[in-house]
Amino acid sequence: MPQLFRRLSAIAVFVVLNVLVYPAFGNPVEPTPPAPTLTAARTLQHSPPPGVSDNYVITPNGYFDPACVKRVGDGAAILGNNSIRHADGSIETMTGCPSPHFKKDGTRVEGNLSPQNQQSTKSNVPRYEGWVEFAYNVYNVGASLLYTNWTVPQTPPQLDDQTIFLFAGLEPSDQSFILQPVLGFNGFSSYPDQWTIESWNCCPNGNAIYSTPVIVYPGETIYGQAYSTDVNSYLSQSGNNYYNGNCSKIGPVGYFCPFWGIIIGTASASTTLYTDLAWSGEPMVFVAGGVMETYNIRNCAQYPPSGGVAFNYPLVYSAAGYYLQVANDPYFGFGSWLPQYGNGVVACNYFVAQSPPYAGEPFLEPAIVLYWTP
Q: Residue 283: is it exposed, middle or buried by C-beta count within 10 angstroms (0-12/13-18/19+)?
């Protein structure tokens, strides 16, 4: 009985939070001209890593051939790893990327493997040099929801072509793809020295796909979410998109969810990408609760002056019907977030910490705080 009560309580909390969260996303807003152009590797003060062409662009997943980075309109869906369904119902064939992409250190990645993927694809600790600091956990039960919020930092005092990405993400055990609600600074050369938000999915058929960028401003609260939903509701445009859509049990404890939505927004605008992962059959067991990834950082004044960012009280929900990652809870809990930091070329006193658990609400995780010295 106590376990049942706790599961029902968890569901009740989720429903209440959904009522609060979803109205925060306003109507999707298309960017104003010029059309977004991703920042090219040629902008780096030093040469790109060996093998990376100057025309390659910087993404939250490393360096890509621009022909293999695709922007889609708000509400588009990646279907079956080889096509894109746009919000107007039209279908676009998505060809495989003929070019490799590269991690920040220049490691070559082929096919539809994400840059986090290593030769040992079952590693529980990513060794991705672009992730300067982050907190993560790995579960044996597939997640069906990741939700968090954070604040757009102030503009860095020194502006010198740096690119900063702040995001959360979900991945399978082999880290072959990732779902990311992303806040980026200077990610687009057409929006210089501005913060933008997009939803990203890397790397179906070797491509990096992102939704319509939205410009945001320092001090705004960002809501990011990756959630399983129902493909039939999406295709019928019924609007009945909900978490835990058609998830199925695989193995003794694992659950696989085939269709996902990625949404990131503020109180006035949002941008969404859907993706069909039925081809993978992999449950989402690797959860990155908060990540900072950087490019072209040469001194600490290129970071925001706040000295840190907090990913507030992440929610990680299981397709099995209960919350994962609840601190100090012997039934639901799987321990604290696992920190990794100090991967930056420039030493800026990186550190990852957790805030105390949220008073009065046991189903909300402690905030993940990523620190640096500006």
A: buried
